[in-house]
Amino acid sequence: MALLEVRNLEVRFGLRSGEVKALRDINFSLERGERLGVVGESGAGKSVLGFSILNLLSKPGFIAGGEILFEGKNLANLSPRELRGIRGNRISMIFQDPMMTLNPVLTIGQQMVECLLAHRKISRKDAKRIALQKLKQVYIPSPEKRFDQYPHELSGGMRQRIVIAIGLLMDPDIIIADEPTTALDVTIQAEIMDLMLELCERNNVALMLITHDLGVVSQVTRQAMVMYAGRIIEHGPTREIINDAQHPYTQGLMNALPQMAIPGQRLNQIRGSMPPLQNIPTGCAFNPRCDYAMDICRSTLPEYVRSGGCRVACHMVAQQLAENAAPQTLEVK
Predict the structure, then answer these.
(1) How many whole angstroms separate alpha carbon 282 and alpha carbon 295?
(2) What cellular-component terms does GO give this entry (predicted)?
């Protein structure tokens, strides 16, 4: 049994104009110690997926169908009390902006100790000892001093390390990291990602990394899942997707990496933008931006096909696979 298994997940938002689908037909699993990258542009549904797993969706969002199984328990059906025993305890989430995550009127130590006391029956002395231990794990210099400081007294990189330390407080089985390096400069980004990778490997923690950067995914994860307009369009081993992307959207993301451009020329980009949830195109949602779109792409939602080790939702890929599988007839003269 997989540690986490998501089956046919569908998330909707109730608007005045009617319900819109934010996530459609989401299926994947996460094993203990596995590292999964979730990639896509803004609006693809990556963060909504992370929030859905922990049932943190705020109204008007709601889980409309499917299952989110953690060790066989469906998180979508648990009571608030049961969820509190898992959320932040067995499954932790690291959010994009540490200044929005940390309480500005409480010291770092107060926030860490309160988190421990909420989940464990231990003394404040033991809670402080554990908190200092976690600060040392994420290489915070002078942890005793930082323990008594407020978030605004720390740098961006230091705050993000604090958030990671809080995520590790309860020794979780899964960490969901939602764009954990967005607000940081490039050198600090590399340090934070190296730190997360080291901690996950050392503690055998499963990592679900949500990002728009395929470059980061290629360095950190073993499996990758590319999302577009609320649907998974390609899913498989990271190395295979990076080296031989099948879906035109994944190819576009790869070509948009700065290192793929010719020096002195404009960077490559995917034309157009992500469609709004209220106006997702019929058929393949990517068809208005796709250079290979066919008539079937504009009318029929593509089914998943297996290409190598990857699962791909693309009519063009399905057609190529069918052509390659067709028996070749020899012409007799």
Answers:
(1) 11
(2) plasma membrane
- Distances, alpha carbon 282 to alpha carbons 19, 98, 240, 299, 327, in Å: 17, 38, 29, 6, 33
- pLDDT tens for the chain, 333 residues: list them: 789 999 999 999 998 888 999 999 999 999 999 999 999 999 999 999 999 999 888 889 999 999 999 999 999 889 888 988 898 889 999 887 777 789 999 999 999 999 999 888 899 999 999 999 999 988 889 999 999 999 999 988 889 889 988 988 888 999 999 988 776 677 777 887 888 888 888 888 999 999 988 888 888 899 999 999 999 999 999 999 999 999 999 999 998 888 887 888 888 889 999 999 889 999 999 999 999 999 999 999 999 999 989 999 999 999 999 988 876 555 555
Spatial contact of 163 and 102, defined as CB atoms under 8 Å apart:
yes
pLDDT digits (tens, 9 = 90+) for 44-101: 999 999 999 998 888 899 999 999 999 999 998 898 889 888 988 899 998 877 777 8
**Cα(219)–Cα(44) distance, integer angstroms:** 22
One-letter identity of residue 99: M
> Residue holding tokens 């994947």?
28
DSSP string, 269-311: --SS-PPPGGGPPSSSTTGGG-TT--GGGGTSPPPEEEETTEE
The C-alpha atoms of residue 125 and residue 96 are separated, in whole angstroms, by 31
- List, in sequence order, every residue forming a beta bridge with 235; answer none if it has no partner: 225, 311
Question: Contact at 8 Å (CB) between 34 and 204?
Answer: no
What is d(CA 226, CA 31) in angstroms, rounded to the nearest whole number?
18
CA 182 → CA 160, 161, 201, distances in Å?
Answer: 10, 13, 23
**What residues pair up with 210 in beta bridges, in sequence order?**
38, 178
Q: pTM for this structure?
A: 0.90
List the beta bridge partners of residue 146: none
Hey, what are 163's tokens?
């958030």
Which H or E run contains 129? helix 124-137
- Burial of residue 130 (number of CB atoms within 10 Å: 0-12, 13-18, 19+): middle
